[in-house]
Design a protein that fits this description.
Structural class: alpha/beta
Strand order of the largest sheet: 2-3-4-1-5
Helix content: 55-70%
Oligomer: single chain
Number of strands: 5
Strand content: 5-15%
Number of helices: 17
Order of helices and strands: HEHHEHHHEHHEHEHHHHHHHH
Distance between the termini: 54 Å
Low-confidence stretches: none
Shape: globular
Largest sheet: 5 strands, parallel
Length: 373
């Protein structure tokens, strides 16, 4: 990955390049942004630049041995730490890691703007609780204690440190404070607020902002996406290039119909059907569960935009028609209430709450909100 392959974000690129030129490369840097933004691409582009053998003032060369190997994510001095299924001991950990690493490389290569649920799908572990464990921290200690193979920087990329078990987080504090020479830690987080203060206080924060609608539209147009479709998707993506890629591929009709039926069941207060729906939801896998609630949040937001007289960022005419009627029927106050309820449920789900109970409680809360007044 090179800086030039990431559209926009020129100020951030300039900040990273200027820091290197001035010899100010912090040993522990925390890249933070929302899911599906350029957090991982920026980490990889920066790592590539640091290791490039023929860099310019603006970017890595992309053709030297280091650049080529980092592009394939196989450079011997580039190490990855990422959420996986837990292993009970060091022997089993090596097997788990050996099986997961090739899949993680594939995921990063094909979906650098991907979500954690996309990783779970690629990994084939949608129903498992993925973590960075204490065994990962031991592996980190082992990696940093070894000499650099190439004699230059040794870089550890830690993806989603917010999914790090407390024991693992505590174990790496010392190496964050006193790293070996030429060792760089690049953390990529989507939930800065969930990180331990002991980690955030020991890292330099690099904020990765969203893309503008214009930047996303221009980038999609370069990928031969029809102008109107690119414009529509760019508005819906909310600054997230990963969301734009996903929306281009997805029609969204099934999600739309599922959401519509769910809201109708809540409106009618059909308890038997809501219980049944929650059972189905609980068996759909964590990735699908988060996706369903995220889609619901987007639809509710669209309805609120309609009530406020703003253009609708919906994907299709059917969705636009539904959210218009939905918004008119509910009004801003009730929309805001169910928006907050759904956001709260998603937050509980991300903290591994029981999906069946979470969904059923949400459905009952929405039923009360829809029928309020």
């Amino acid at each position: 990955m090179q800086f030039r392959q990431i559209p926009g974000l020129e100020e951030l690129k300039g900040q990273l390049l200027s820091g290197y030129a001035k010899g100010k490369v912090a040993h522990a840097q925390l890249f933070s942004g929302k899911p599906e933004t350029a957090v991982v691409p920026m980490v990889l582009a920066y790592a590539t630049y640091l290791m490039c053998e023929d860099k310019s003032d603006e970017d890595s060369c992309g053709t030297c041995s280091n650049c080529v190997r980092i592009k394939k994510l196989v450079h011997p001095d580039l190490h990855f730490v990422f959420p996986k299924v837990s292993a009970s001991d060091s022997g089993k950990y090596e097997k788990v890691f050996a099986e997961a690493l090739p899949k993680f490389r594939t995921f990063v290569e094909l979906q650098p703007y991907g979500r954690t649920e996309d990783w779970a799908t690629t990994y084939g572990q949608e129903n498992k609780n993925l973590l960075i464990t204490r065994e990962d921290s031991r592996q980190m200690l082992k990696n940093v204690s070894m000499r650099s193979v190439e004699g230059g920087f040794k870089i550890l990329v830690i993806w989603c440190p917010e999914m790090m078990h407390a024991s693992a987080a505590n174990a790496i504090l010392k190496i964050l404070e006193e790293p070996p020479e030429n060792t760089i830690y690049l953390m990529a987080t989507y939930h800065y607020d969930q990180l331990l203060a002991t980690i955030t206080s020991r890292t330099q924060l690099i904020s990765v902002g969203p893309h503008s609608v214009h930047e996303i539209q221009a980038y999609l147009s370069q990928q031969d996406i029809p102008t109107e479709r690119a414009k529509q998707v760019a508005k819906l993506a909310e600054g997230k290039l990963g969301a734009a890629f996903r929306l281009v591929k997805e029609e969204g009709s099934l999600e739309y119909q599922t959401f519509q039926k769910w809201m109708l069941e809540c409106w009618n207060g059909n308890l038997v059907t809501l219980v049944s729906r929650s059972e189905v939801f609980s068996k759909s896998g964590r990735s699908s569960q988060r996706s369903d609630l995220s889609y619901a949040i987007a639809m509710i937001r669209s309805a609120a935009l309609h009530v406020g007289g703003n253009p609708l960022p919906a994907q299709s005419k059917e969705e636009q028609s539904f959210v218009s009627k939905f918004g008119d029927r509910l009004g801003r106050q009730r929309l805001e209430k169910i928006y907050l309820l759904t956001n709260e449920a998603l937050s509980h789900l991300e903290r591994n709450s029981n999906p069946r109970i979470t969904h059923l409680n949400l459905s009952l809360d929405i039923t009360r909100a829809l029928n309020d007044g």
